[in-house]
Amino acid sequence: MKNILLIPDSFKGTMSSEQICSIMDRAIKQHYPDAQVTSIPVADGGEGSVDAFLQALGGERRSLTVQGPYAFPMESFYGVIKKTTAVVEMAACAGLPLVGDELHPDLTTTYGVGELILDAAKTGCTTIIVGLGGSATNDGGCGAAAACGVVFRDKDGKAFVPTGGTLGKVESIDTSSLDPALKNVTITTMCDIDNPYYGPTGAAHIFGPQKGATPEMVKILDANMQKLAKVIERDCKIDVQAIAGSGAAGGMGGGMAAFFGSQLQMGIETVLETVNFDKLLTKADLVLTGEGKIDGQSLRGKVVIGVARRAKKVNVPVVAIVGDIGDDVEGAYNEGVSAIFSINRLAIDFKAAKPRAPHDMEKTMDNLMRFIKRMGL
Length: 377
What we know:
- The chain folds into 2 domains: 118 residues, 3-Layer(aba) Sandwich (Rossmann fold); 219 residues, Glycerate kinase, domain 2 (Alpha-Beta Complex).
- It contains 14 helices and 15 strands.
- A 6-stranded mixed β-sheet has the order 3-4-5-6-9-10, sandwiched between helices. A 5-stranded parallel β-sheet has the order 2-1-11-13-15, with helices on both faces.
- The longest helix is centred in the middle third of the chain and has 22 residues.
- It is elongated.
């Protein structure tokens, strides 16, 4: 066992991807001290995505004063990897933790996210990865677009920066004024959900309540997004409602597609492409991945399955170390997963298992390495 790739997702609320990689690496080295271990912490687009990319690939973290969720100045950041690729996580200036108890998705803005994107473009980045997740906003990405030069006008022709509560006032959109610095920049948006822009499963109805929207406000936000979608279709020539994931992060998914020409892509696919995973696989003897729980939903193409599909093409075995295993995971084996192991050694519920997770991960990894070593691999 000479070359092992580690690419686990975080166990949400329990262990970060970086922590899991560290535990796995330590257990491997105890049994295979000479093994070449490559750790690739997975960034899902939410908080911590910039640091995960920087740990995996190196680079620099750039600080910048931008508008926060309520348009007040705040210190934010983005990462630069491979010299010309920027990683922006919207949670860094439009995230839910930033508003504390002041939950008003009708007032919050993504303007600061646009400022981060524009700064990256103006300082030489030709590829920008935007991570969606953990937002406090429901402005359809209009704030970010306005920060980059897109003009939104009301019925009187007056330009303004829309928020969730004022999206319905948008009567025209002019994208021709998008800052020239973004003209030759490729923007990829990490998006792991497929909710539409509006409707019963759209941004406002599904995610609005966790951001503080009352039932009445949800109706208003959704109606505003429906109206905005019509203006976008007329002026931007794109039907955001038809784009899977357009409802992500308060409609930021749709906004990135409509105003920036961005492609929405599953987070794991973005990670795999950015780290040149296929090239790393050519030398790998084993891939270790994992997530908090693997079940039928995982088969949509999240971390474990995304990794397994690529490894299967070159016949590299994939072992998933997970917190819990659902009953409907048989399809994972057809996708390229060789084996699945749960770290829940005592078969206890999550509340009791959570504080034990790092210890149980280490013991499970130790058992796996002992087995592999005994098999002479």
